[in-house]
User: What shape does this take?
Amino acid sequence: MKIEIIPATDIIGGACVRLTQGDYDRRTTYYRDPLEAALRFEEAGIRRLHMVDLDGAKASEPRNLAVLERVASKTSLEVQYGGGIKSREALRSVFDAGASRVICGSIAVREPEAFAEWLGEFGPGKLILGADVRDGAVAIQGWLEHSGFTVRELINRFTPQGLTQVICTDISRDGMLCGPSAEFYAGLQGAYPGVEITVSGGISSMADIEALDSTGLRSVIVGKALYEGRITLNELKRCLQNA
Assistant: This one.
């Protein structure tokens, strides 16, 4: 299997939680200390961790940098961090706290010139475009607001600036354990061969990941399926050892 598996840690109040369909009122807390989860993933052989500051997404500024700093300093994981990054100062603070890559969503929609500048300044290897999709449109502001843009329109806006990484989350499937929209993601990856399309939302089993791998997708974010035991750490370890 070639596809990279990236566990998700969504942070509210310093704890590791999962939302259902992006609804802040439908959340489950899995780890009071996200470092505990990160260490377990690292021991299984994971290389990259997806961390979303849900408090920061609501507040429009990072709010859980202490969690990021702790995980980044006490593990060897590459942490990609998103949530509330609306200014260059916020972006620098996230890198200073130990993030290897930073995910930008709302800023790319509302201030595309700023995100384009950041791509040039920090490099496409450090910045990820976050495109969270609901009913065909990209949602912003912690999934609370529709932008009116499709994911392809958003990607097209930044490929001239060298964009190489996109996380596309299907909000309707996020936390639902119903399987991903494999055809949608395969079509997106086929349309942009120079861009790594990371699948996010709906993963329920290793079979889902194997199906995505067979279509040539390069990376996938897994959240609730791991926390609910639909995919075990032993399965993860075996899969990574055979990669």
